[in-house]
Amino acid sequence: MTEQGGIPITRVVVPAERASRIRAKVRAAQSMPVGVGTARVAKVEDAELFHRFLSDPAVHTPIYTLPSPLTPASVCEFIKKHLAEQQAGEGVLFLCFDDAGSIVSYNNIGVWPQWAAGKMGGAMHPEYQGGGSGTRGAAAGFGWMFEVLDLEVICETAAPDNVRSAHLLDRLGFDRMGQITSYRDDGTSRPSLVWEMTRDAWRNRHSG
């Protein structure tokens, strides 16, 4: 999907030196906490296993940023695209595996270094959903983005009918910022609700 128009809503230009440091942190990232373990950077050789994970409708249906059609080849290109984004310091794709080597979840991090802002998408295998695991995983990821990547704002979007994501973001204290239109690379679009959280607000709400 191309960059979603209008996000982040909050855009405060940071000094070039800080933007450069954020890019370096993104390039250096190798793992992140995800609540049910630790995720690592996706590799091209993960494409077949990742495609198998994404093929479950319960995983891919709510997610607008995945390639379409969803094939092993398109998933491989999706991984390559994110490896290039990481080299540019603008994003990183993480996969989390269980002890048997199956994918438990993935996290797709996007970063706007010039605004010290970022976004996180992803999904968890249905077997691991429920019991607060999704909320714990998201909280771990957002905290990592603020503290390790040194971001000031996190901006999230979801379709108006994505009740699960809306409840999660509201529960974590994100502010609703309105609605935009999101565009895919194939030209299709959808309305998206927007939430944001600042680092100060996150620390005040989640410290300890």
Search tags:
single chain, 208 residues, alpha+beta, Aminopeptidase, 8-stranded mixed beta sheet
Question: What is the fold's blueprint, element by element?
Answer:
Blueprint: H1 16-28, E1 31-33, E2 38-41, H2 47-54, H3 57-60, H4 72-87, E3 91-97, E4 103-112, E5 117-124, H5 133-147, E6 153-158, H6 163-172, E7 175-183, E8 189-198, H7 199-206
Describe this structure as you would to a colleague.
With 208 residues, the chain is an alpha+beta fold. Helix content is 36%, strand content 27%. The protein has a domain at 16-152: 3-Layer(aba) Sandwich (Aminopeptidase), CATH 3.40.630. α2 packs across α4.
Query: Going across the major beta sheet, what is the strand order?
Result: 1-2-3-4-5-6-8-7
- End-to-end distance, in Å? 36 Å
Mean pLDDT: 91
| Distinct helical segment count | 7
In one word, what is the shape? globular
Count the strands? 8
Q: So, CATH architecture of the domain at 16-152? A: 3-Layer(aba) Sandwich
Q: Would you state the CATH class of the domain at 16-152?
A: Alpha Beta
**SSE ordering:** HEEHHHEEEHEHEEH
CATH topology of the domain at 16-152, which one?
Aminopeptidase
Which stretches of 5+ consecutive residues score pLDDT under 50? none
Structural class: alpha+beta
Secondary structure: helix percent: 25-40%
Radius of gyration: 16 Å
Measured by DSSP, the beta-strand proportion falls in 25-35%
Biggest sheet layout:
8 strands, mixed
In CATH, what is the homologous superfamily of the domain at 16-152?
Gcn5-related N-acetyltransferase (GNAT)
